[in-house]
Specification:
- 35% of the residues lie in helices and 18% in strands.
- By secondary structure, it is an alpha+beta fold.
- It folds into 3 domains: 87 residues, no CATH class; 99 residues, FAD/NAD(P)-binding domain, CATH 3.50.50.60; 89 residues, Polyamine Oxidase, Chain A, domain 2 (Alpha-Beta Complex).
- The strands form 3 sheets. Strands 6-7-8-5-9 form a 5-stranded antiparallel beta sheet.
- Strand 2 and strand 3 form a beta hairpin.
- The longest helix has 19 residues.
- The radius of gyration is 22 Å and the shape is globular.
- The N and C termini lie far apart (58 Å).
Length: 318
């Protein structure tokens, strides 16, 4: 198991990892140059794919195969690195600006925090919206109707296009990436490092990356492992779970004990690598939209466009 750490965050782990055979001095130098260029907003060619960029800039094949490809495959959720450089630069800039974190109660806790500041009577859940009329009447599948002066469509790309432009939403674009994430509970073991991102750089097996998580809310003596895959997505859940556990035991041996499948999340409409970086959030004076599909697809874009849409509406009301 090789450890590669950010020298600006953990100099000791970086010093240990620098002796590993996965990269050359040139690889480290190039990584440093990219880090500084992007941190200070010097752009690379945005229409180039990440894979082409890694090859052309001069990284060694071993470093690309063992670190860059599995790491950024986990970030972009596609293992060919066809993602454009504008996405890479936005993500890398985030890495240079701050730490990566996972909310202890899960990513949905972000929405829950926002909801706490809104009166419950103002939030209606469990109602599928089927249409939005020109005069701002929202119709739901149970034939309820709601009116509003201003509407913001915060939905995925397919549902947004259906609601805003009446495009068919039963067609899944081939530009969308697909993945599955499996969650298992296993016995805790001090040799299983928590909150480390484990990458599969072997080009074998179906596991791309995984992480071990621990939280005081978990049963005593248990931890959770989250495993992301891009291959063998067509397998039945029980077959897939057995295959993943078998591979996990090949990697960690008898450290994996008393595993139990918690959940498998299958996502068919992940980050769309073909979307341009634009923030045109207004359809009309009373209809706006936001979401990751509005720019470089990411959670940051979803949050940013939501804020921008709100700011435009506030400005309009002045």
């Amino acid at each position: 198991m090789l450890i590669f750490a950010n020298p600006f965050e953990n100099i000791l782990d970086f010093a240990k990892g620098i002796k590993t055979p996965i990269f050359t001095i040139k690889d480290l130098f190039l990584l440093g140059v990219i880090y500084l260029r992007i941190k200070f907003n010097f752009k690379y060619y945005e229409n180039t794919t990440v894979h082409t960029f890694f090859s052309k800039i001069g990284f060694s094949k071993k470093f690309i195969s063992l670190f860059l490809k599995p790491f950024f495959s986990g970030v972009f959720l596609e293992n060919q690195l066809r993602t454009k450089m504008n996405k890479f630069q936005e993500v890398f800039k985030s890495f240079t600006d701050g730490n990566v974190f996972i909310p202890s109660d899960g990513i949905n806790s972000l929405a829950q925090q926002i909801a706490k500041n809104i009166p419950k009577k103002n939030i209606i859940l469990g109602k599928e919206v089927v249409s939005i009329s020109i005069d701002n009447i929202v119709s739901t599948i149970d034939k309820s109707k709601y009116s509003a002066k201003i509407i913001v469509i915060a939905a995925d790309k397919l549902n947004f296009e259906y609601l805003a432009y009446r495009k068919k939403r039963n067609l899944i674009s081939s530009n969308f990436n697909k993945s599955k994430t499996l969650y298992f509970s296993i016995d805790d073991n001090p040799e299983l490092k928590k909150f480390y991102l484990y990458l599969n750089g072997s080009n074998e097996g179906i596991i791309n990356n995984l992480i071990f998580l621990r939280n005081e809310k978990y049963p005593k003596g248990k931890i959770i492992t989250s495993i992301t895959i891009f291959k063998s997505l067509e397998l039945q859940q029980d077959v897939l779970a057995k295959k993943v556990i078998k591979e996990l035991k090949l990697i960690f041996g008898d450290k994996i004990k008393n595993h139990k499948l918690i959940e498998i999340f299958s996502i068919k409409e992940l980050i769309n690598s073909s979307i341009n970086h634009k923030y045109n959030l207004c359809i009309s004076n009373n209809l706006y939209f936001c979401g990751e599909h509005c720019g470089v697809a990411s959670l940051n874009t979803a949050l940013k466009t939501g804020r921008l849409a709100a700011e435009r509406i506030i400005e309009l009301k002045k």
